[in-house]
Specification:
Structural class: mainly alpha
Shape: globular
Number of domains: 1
Number of strands: 0
Radius of gyration: 19 Å
Order of helices and strands: HHHHHHHHH
Largest sheet: none
Number of helices: 9
Strand content: under 5%
Helix content: over 70%
């Protein structure tokens, strides 16, 4: 397969950044108790929008796309401002924030995996880059807000959803699908898994639960 096959359209990368910034600002604006001013909410939105791409490009040893042109940072800033402006409207529609979060996850996953394949990375590292790109912005957002990192929190399955989406993209392109079809499929798969996780409360076993289970088994063996 030719590397040029995996080149991501500029407008798509820009759209993902804007969507991530809107979601980041909406998320940050919910925490009234933290007394964030408008600048703080805006900065968190911008970081959420460009963070995944920054980490992705650093892993690929490239100049971050957000710093290569004059477009990314202004778009992220305007998107964050829009997120703040419509926060009251969206706060009544929590499902909208959840959907934006899921779609943003899928877009960054598809773009990150595609860029990794474009520079010639093998499929396993490419999947890893896709996952990191997908969850990177949210991780930086949570760090700035002083929250438990969402990707590591019980019941989130962000990385799992992104991992399945990245594997789908790699498998689809290996089967002969164009990067457009594979990328759309990646976004759909990642988004659906994330939404299903939220809807049904799926989660991986908690570390404490595993430790408790081991102790119970030891007690049973001792009694036997």
């Amino acid at each position: 397969m030719v590397a040029e096959q995996f080149v991501t359209p500029f407008w798509l990368d820009l759209a993902a950044t804007g969507l991530g910034s809107v979601q980041g600002a909406l998320f940050a604006a919910q925490f009234k108790d933290r007394r964030l001013d408008l600048l703080g909410v805006g900065l968190i939105g911008v970081v959420a929008g460009v963070g995944g791409g920054l980490i992705r490009d650093l892993l690929l040893n490239q100049v971050p796309a957000a710093l290569e042109t004059n477009w990314f940072l202004p778009v992220a800033t305007v998107a964050a401002l829009l997120g703040m402006l419509f926060e009251r409207l969206f706060s009544r529609l929590n499902v909208a924030i959840t959907i934006l979060d899921a779609v943003s996850l899928g877009l960054f996953c598809a773009i990150g995996t595609s860029k990794a394949l474009a520079v010639g990375l093998p499929v396993v590292p490419a999947v890893f880059v896709g996952i990191v790109a997908a969850v990177g912005g949210g991780m930086l957002r949570d760090i700035l807000l002083g929250l438990p990192i969402g990707v590591m929190h019980v019941g989130s399955l962000y990385a799992v959803a992104a991992g399945v989406g990245a594997v789908f993209l790699v498998a689809a392109t290996a089967s002969g699908a164009t990067i457009t079809i594979a990328g759309i499929g990646c976004v759909i798969v990642t988004t659906l898994i994330r939404l299903l996780v939220v809807r049904f409360g799926w989660s991986l076993p908690e570390q404490r639960a595993i430790s408790t289970l081991r102790r119970l088994r030891r007690l049973r063996r001792t009694r036997d």
